[in-house]
């Protein structure tokens, strides 16, 4: 497993520890922090200190694993390829295809609307023909395609999880996740699983952020302002990513028994405590970090 200290990986870890057969599992986690690795050892988790960007290490650990869960950077091509090389070695040794569960994202569905239009296109993870039409040039797609090729070659079973918006404050020992599945059956091109439970617009989110800032005495208008071209360049590298469309239906996980409990209302309700947390972090460090654009957009 990679990035157990992260938002998604921490929840996966918590679920594994709670599993009734956990004592029979042999779990190895790759951790950047020696202190957190030491903590994992107290939870009966094998910990290796290192980085998922260390390709020789990733390949070695993967070659020793029956299942790899990647919850780190969805776009780290080198790490994904190293993992696949290791899993191929595992297959050559055992003659049994190991499983690779990879966290991608619904950003792979985004269009080029640049804030000018909506879309009627909704991707369903049961519609394999539709998913196969996703352009190879889409974000995350280069990594996803390598997993699919490995599955087609027969040396690995790939399962690609595509969370949508991950929101709220982390609550578990090492993080939190947006969605999970009880047992993955379809793999390869049939094994794409969307984590979805409703839709929202970025206008709804920006408006709620604006309202929260007014409530906290930090804003004067509850209506969000439009970014200028200069601000888009500063905060988004020139591309209005928040003006794209990505719509999907998470049908596969529901067929497996997944029953999501959080809705769009919960997402909007999470904004105030999240903004308060960001502002506390600013008081502590003097910086809003990578999420500066979210608050700036609503001021």
Descriptive report:
It comes from Ephemerocybe angulata. This is NAD(P)-binding domain-containing protein. GO terms for molecular function: aldehyde dehydrogenase (NAD+) activity. With about 300 residues, the protein is α/β, with parallel strands linked by helices. It has 2 domains: about 5-195, Rossmann fold (3-Layer(aba) Sandwich); about 200-245 and about 265-295, no CATH class. It is built from 12 helices and 8 strands. The strands form 3 sheets. Strands 3-4-6-7 form a 4-stranded parallel beta sheet. Strands 1-2 form a two-stranded parallel sheet. Strands 5-8 form a two-stranded parallel ribbon. Strand 1 (about 30), helix 2 (about 35-40) and strand 2 form a beta-alpha-beta unit. Helix 3 (about 55-65) runs parallel beside helix 4 and helix 4 (about 75-95) packs parallel to helix 6 (about 140-155). The relative contact order is 0.13. Residues about 175-185 and about 290-299 have low confidence and may be disordered.
Notable features of this structure?
single chain, 299 residues, alpha/beta, Rossmann fold, 2 domains, 4-stranded parallel beta sheet, two-stranded parallel sheet, 11% strand, globular, disordered C terminus
Strand order across the largest sheet: 3-4-6-7
* Major β-sheet profile: 4 strands, parallel
What average pLDDT do the residues reach?
A: 86
Helix content: 25-40%
Order of helices and strands: HEHEHEHEEHHEEHHEHHHH
What top-tier CATH class of the largest domain fits best? Alpha Beta
> What structural class do the secondary elements suggest?
alpha/beta
Strand content of the residues, in percent? 5-15%
InterPro entries: NAD(P)-bd_dom_sf, NAD(P)-dependent_oxidoreduct
Organism: Ephemerocybe angulata
GO molecular function: aldehyde dehydrogenase (NAD+) activity
Protein name: NAD(P)-binding domain-containing protein
